[in-house]
Design brief:
Elements lengths: L2 H7 L4 E4 L6 E2 L6 H14 L6 H4 L4 H11 L2 H18 L4 E2 L3 H10 L4 E4 L4 H10 L9 E2 L14 H10 L6 E5 L2 H10 L2 E5 L4 H9 L3 E3 L2 H13 L1
Parallel strand pairs: 1-4, 1-6, 4-5, 6-7, 7-8
Antiparallel strand pairs: 2-3
Helix pairs in contact: 2-4, 2-5, 4-5, 5-7, 6-11
């Protein structure tokens, strides 16, 4: 058993999960670069001149973030609506992360509330959890604030919102995430954070960013939670 994880969970009263990564690969069957290109097409249809670096941006969330920063709320809403629809379609072919389900179920069986804190839309998260029989285990779902990309992680607001909803102070919650925005957001929110390094290059980056523990498989977390459940 991972001793660092064991000590961390001694201090934890709730588990907060990022969605895309720790739970599933959202865009496995509907690739993110394709979605990003479709969002850029929304801009073209509105007669908006798109700079080359944005036109080739492969991350749909970054497209939304940049459009939001430009300050035209109607355009931001149009891109948001298109992204929400694409995410709802994407979760139909999303690939479950190995041992992601086991982490959710084991945490609940160990008596820990489980919430999702995601930069994806809450509707997409809800649809996935329902389809995979996980909805009963997860509450609340804190998704992306509508047409307000500046409120996405690493903004600590959604993480604090989830902590409040599960009835634990931030310091008694742990966020499990697979991006630097998760690490940075958790640090700003005052929660513990486990970096799920689903690619080798992330290990050092997460350690440098201040993750409390870094794992390369969700199984490491599941094993610790099962051991707690059985102790």
């Amino acid at each position: 058993m991972n001793a660092d994880l064991g000590r961390l969970f001694d201090e934890v009263g709730a588990v907060l999960l990022d969605f895309d990564g720790p739970v599933c690969s959202v865009f496995a069957g509907y690739p993110a670069p394709r979605v990003a290109a479709e969002l850029v097409e929304v801009l073209h249809r509105r007669g908006i001149e798109v700079p080359p670096d944005l036109a080739s941006e492969p991350d749909p969330l970054e497209v939304l973030r940049r459009i939001g920063a430009a300050g035209d709320q109607k355009v931001t809403q149009a891109v948001e609506d298109a992204l929400c629809a694409a995410e709802r379609q994407a979760v139909e072919t999303a690939e479950p992360t190995p041992y992601g389900r086991e982490v959710v179920v084991a945490a609940r069986q160990a008596g820990l509330p489980v919430a999702v804190v995601s930069n994806n839309s809450a509707g997409a998260v809800s649809a996935y959890l329902a389809a995979h029989r996980l909805a009963v285990h997860v509450s609340p779902i804190v998704g992306r604030a509508y047409a307000a990309p500046e409120r996405m992680k690493p903004n600590p607001e959604p993480i604090r919102q989830a902590a409040h909803a599960v009835g634990e102070p931030p310091a008694r919650c742990v966020l499990i995430g697979d991006s630097l925005s998760d690490i940075d957001g958790a640090r700003a929110a005052g929660t513990l954070v486990i970096g799920y390094a689903n690619r080798p290059a992330k290990v050092g980056k997460f350690q440098e960013a201040g993750a409390d523990v870094v794992v390369t498989s969700m199984r490491e977390i599941a094993d610790v939670l099962v051991a707690r459940m059985n102790s």
